[in-house]
């Protein structure tokens, strides 16, 4: 039985904690308010993960340190640098493998499927923040100062996820018209939260995975319209009514809504095909994606209140 330290109790942090606890591992979850999954194998600690000394003390003896945190969307440039630095410092001081939940923002607009070799060419602030975090972690790894890995998925499906499906599906299940700044017919990759957790744990434990990033195994892409249709069929809801919001309306909304303002930067993800190639993780780590309908069924159940909501804190993961 080994100790695993998880920072963040959002959907991925919670799924990772439960996965490890079910395997008989010791799990310690750190959030600002001491929240996390209610499980006898999970210890919940209230602490500021951006404090490198406190985090290193909590990580002492841990085999892995999982970065499942995510600051508020509009505060990435402010909150991520000290938090990422503390995580990297704690990993270096304790020799715990630092396994980070990343996303696809760092690639920027891409024509064709994204692989781990796709150049990090993000033009926006959020993508550049993620790229800088990974570059600093990779430099520490290559200098022998820490052991690091990162896993990246697309928009999440699953209990507690907060991504495009969570803006789309509640209205679909309620039979309401859904208006979003989305090309509903563009193929899009969707990633199941439980698959993110499985990939994160596998990458932390396998030294072949250290020193590089991995894409989470995800099912074949389908459009947002197809996703909505499948969800409606699973729930016995009416046929979805979907309307695309013009970009100028999104831009105007950003004048008063911080979240809408941040969406301007990543609007390209939803106006064209957005495809994730995850064959490397499947081949090397032996992981296969959960079938889309199973992931979607859990998401629908969670939205209908069958599955309890996931704890969220200021250090809980929220986006891709």
TrEMBL record:
One family name in Pfam for this protein: Epimerase
Domain of life: Bacteria
Ranges of residues in domain NAD-dependent epimerase/dehydratase: 5-207
SUPFAM superfamilies associated with the record: NAD(P)-binding Rossmann-fold domains (SSF51735)
InterPro entries: Epimerase_deHydtase, NAD(P)-bd_dom_sf
Name under which the protein is recorded: NAD-dependent epimerase/dehydratase family protein
Organism: Micromonospora rubida
